[in-house]
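Trying the structure run again after the queue cleared.
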Amino acid sequence: MINADSSINIPSSYWRAIIKNDANFDGKFFYGVKTTKIFCRPSCKSKEPYRRNVVIFQSKQDAIAQHFRPCKRCKPDTLLPPEEEKVREMSQWIQTHFSKPITLELLAQQYHTSPSHLQRLFKRIQGRSPLEEVRFRRIEKAKELLTHTDLSVTDIGLEVGYTHTSYFITTFKRATGLTPTFYRKRFL
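Done. Tokens:
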């Protein structure tokens, strides 16, 4: 902990990071608010605290030792920043449910956000949209089924979430450059 009693000891760069929600300082320090006994990351979007109520911690363990609890908004006790954590959870959910009908609206509802925000966030962190992630997971599973089972192309398409065989074949060919049948012959 840098300052126990006075906000005078808060470095100006730290204070600027707090009021500007600067994610570049995440992991370098944490700040607590004495009146609420909550500690946050510098990037936290919570209400700007009064400087006189702020205390700086070098680690989350220091904050916890001083009986501060982690903020529920910025989750300073997790390894990943909250947005990355949310996208990681979504990606895991997609990996588990890819064979079911998934829409951007369904994902947005599941994760309590708007479809447009979800799309931007996911694309920025994952490098592809949520629906591109669904398609990727489906194609990867289809490749596995084509090379490790004797299921028909129609059954594999259904297994990975495509209700129309022709759409499955088109999507598979667009992703791999090969039809499912030719892929199976080539990689067996």
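The longest helix spans residues 130-148. Worth checking whether this holds up in the mutant runs.
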